[in-house]
Amino acid sequence: MTKDVTLSLRIDRKLSDKLEKRARQAKRSKSSLATYAIDSFFRIEDEELARIRRTQAAIRAGEPTVPNEEVMRWVKSWGNPGELPMPKRRKKA
After folding, report:
1. CA dist 92 to 59, 74, 80, 82, Å?
2. What is the domain partition of the chain in residue ranges?
């Protein structure tokens, strides 16, 4: 059985007000909502790190990729009249 621990942290007034408002809306305590937010942060970070590791393994295995330069050209074209199509993955030459 895990035991809860008390954590003290400083947050600015604006963030505290947002937390309090959201806690009231959710009918939860600020503490439980903050705990949920921290847990969600770690879950999302863990998923992102796993995705990065899978991508790195795929690159090392020689799977098709999109060169960064092509991605950057594509992103810079967003919202312009000559917006480029999404680049396709391909094997390294």
Report:
1. 10, 19, 29, 27
2. 13-61, 65-93
